[in-house]
Write a structure and sequence with these properties.
It is a single chain. With 266 residues, the protein is an all-alpha fold. The protein has one domain: Ribonucleotide Reductase, subunit A (Orthogonal Bundle). The protein is 75% helix and 0% strand. It has 12 helices and no strands. Helix 2 runs parallel beside helix 5 and helix 2 runs antiparallel to helix 8. The relative contact order is 0.14.
Length: 266
């Protein structure tokens, strides 16, 4: 019996745990970075367009909902060592993202300590509720959300050069994008595993996510509409970007076509 057949037949948890160990080993060997040492904080640009600070602050706020993300995931996947151990690592990395984005806002002079404290207070006033009840659906949602976030960071990185540059923020965005793409790849592989074991059920969840996707938590902020308008003004992400660089890429990487989604949705 060849290896592909063995993987096809092995239990879901066995496949997931092998995937998690590969993720962990690679992160330990190649991807861990230091908030203190790996970003040139002394090269922060204190005269950037304030719109950049609004975008950075918005993503910092989204990251601050980490207790809700991790708490819900840990509860939903309590019986899976692979998933809970992964979310422990994911939570550590995402908390570092929030710290780094907040540090840039302070070091750039775009926000004060008091303003950042107010932001945290606002975030913790509201609880994020998952958009789906299905655990597999939430894995599909995370897969799409991580890729979309990576696209935001990539496009903001590109815009910085047009605005006078900021070596500190540029380096930070590169590190964040690498992390987000790696998270996306992990979730993509988990969906592949679930497709092997329950193709129709997984495709139904995938259809729901891809056709109703929205970034998490931003709508919970009081000034969410103004923040979204600033993001649009910088041309960081739009429907075209979503369709070509998220929707179609996910389908291609999963080996799924739109006809498969329509059939299962029907």
């Amino acid at each position: 019996m060849d290896g592909s057949v063995l993987v096809e037949c092995e239990p879901v948890e066995t496949s997931l745990y092998r995937l998690y160990r590969g993720f962990f080993d690679l992160a330990e060997r190649n991807r861990r970075w230091s908030l203190r040492d790996d970003i040139p904080w002394d090269q922060t640009n204190r005269s950037l367009n304030p719109a950049v600070a609004t975008v950075v602050e918005s993503f910092c706020a989204v990251e601050m909902y980490l207790p809700d993300y991790v708490g819900r995931a840990m509860s939903g996947f309590r019986s899976s060592r692979a998933q809970t151990w992964f979310y422990a690592n994911w939570g550590y990395e995402e908390s570092k993202h929030s710290l780094a984005l907040g540090d840039w806002l302070l070091r750039s002079g775009m926000r004060s300590e008091a303003q950042m404290a107010d932001l945290a207070d606002e975030v913790f006033t509201h609880e994020w509720v998952p958009p789906l009840d299905s655990p597999v659906g939430m894995l599909a949602y995370a897969m799409v959300q991580e890729l979309a976030t990576a696209m935001y960071y990539r496009n903001l990185h590109r815009r910085l050069a047009e605005m006078g540059g900021d070596p500190a923020l540029s380096r930070l965005l590169v590190l964040l994008r690498i992390d987000e793409q790696t998270h996306h790849r992990f979730f993509l592989e988990t969906i592949k595993i679930h497709l092997r074991h329950d193709r129709d059920g997984t495709l139904q969840q995938l259809h729901q996510v891809l056709h109703h996707f929205a970034m998490p938590a931003l709508h919970l902020l009081a000034d969410s509409r103004q923040r979204e308008a600033v993001i649009r003004s910088l041309h960081l992400f739009d429907e075209r970007t979503y369709f070509h660089e998220v929707y179609q890429k996910v389908l291609t990487d999963l080996g799924v076509n739109r006809g498969d989604l329509r059939r299962c949705a029907a």
